[in-house]
Amino acid sequence: MKVQHRWDLFCHVVDNLGDIGVTWRLARQLVVEHGQQVRLFLDDFKAFAHIAPQVQLRAAEQTLAGVQIVPWARQAQATPGDVVIEMFGCHLSETYIAKIGQTSPQPVWLNLEHLSAETWVDLHHLKPSPQSGGVTKYFYYPGFTDKSGGLLREANLIAQRDNWQMQPSARRIAMRALGLPPPPDHALTVLLFSYARQRLDGWLHSMAASERPVALWVCPGPVKTAINAWLDMELQTGQITSRGSLTIYALPYIPQQRFDELLWAADICIVRGEDSFVRAQWAAKPFVWHIYPQEDSAHDRKLDAFLDRYLAEADHDLRDTVVHFWTAWNRGLDLAPAWLEFVGSLPALQRHALKWSRSLQTQPDLASQLINEVQQLGSNRPSLVAAR
């Protein structure tokens, strides 16, 4: 039987949207699908407003989608919930940590880590980490195997995707809702949501010279700097401009609940961070993951690990095509040759993306697994009497 717990989620926003995107999606799912009480401690309300525009920036406390939202500093006065989730090692205050040790029974304390396809994830998932004061924190790793914590996926997501894509007018309606005209029906549509990147000129020239019209949907973010340099103009939100066969649409920030529609509508998705990375896989579309760069090149190992898993059943030519373009994008290389190869393989890439998405659906979703693990860990929580 499912037990209702009080959950405290903590999110320290690092790269504007990635951390809060995962956190907000998990918080809503815990409330909507699992009937849990969720309180979210957040340090950057302006970044949050990009994906949840209804948020009040200066409210001391508010409730959105059934989730209680409070400023980061309020943890000093808070009594810990039954479950404490530290998103991506965001470091709770010493005051709050001390309260965890003073609460009886002790809360289940988890550090929900970054997603990785590396093999060591399975070995470290749910490993305990003893803390001072007799408190134990557990490391929870999302992942792509049945030995990991799984991926975030709402119960009705796949059905919603399939129903949406069966409606010929869905893409036009979605674009009009954003205040933008839909592209021609025969255009190649490309969603661009990436980190800053140089050397986009060859790629943009290739699309501009294409025989097939190309619609490039550019999300807000640092990559617009390279787009503006190529256009020799400052592209404003909502603006549309064309160069040859290429039409560029400057999108506004999209509420998280609507972002899936952009992925479903695109022929190719170029995404960044973790939330859009996972959503592109559920969209079952050919995609490119612009991985967050790290100083020690750990991102290269992480990228290679995912590609090995993603392409394990792909034929040699398809694997080369994907690796060529992903490598060029992530290493700042000239994109034009790899892009032409990628676009030329779209039918095969689409079949592979759908097969991959279906294989992931056999795995229980992250929120459901989290509920089950919390119940098991919670049954073994020490009381203050036992701790003494």
Automatic annotation (TrEMBL):
Keywords on record: Glycosyltransferase, Transferase
GO MF, any single term: protein-arginine rhamnosyltransferase activity
InterPro entries on file: EarP
Record's catalysed reaction(s): dTDP-beta-L-rhamnose + L-arginyl-[protein] = N(omega)-(alpha-L-rhamnosyl)-L-arginyl-[protein] + dTDP + H(+)
Biological role stated in the UniProt entry: Protein-arginine rhamnosyltransferase that catalyzes the transfer of a single rhamnose to elongation factor P (EF-P) on 'Lys-32', a modification required for EF-P-dependent rescue of polyproline stalled ribosomes.
UniProt family annotation: Belongs to the glycosyltransferase 104 family.
NCBIfam families for the chain: efp_Arg_rhamno (TIGR03837)
Record-given protein name: Protein-arginine rhamnosyltransferase
Protein source organism: Thiomonas bhubaneswarensis
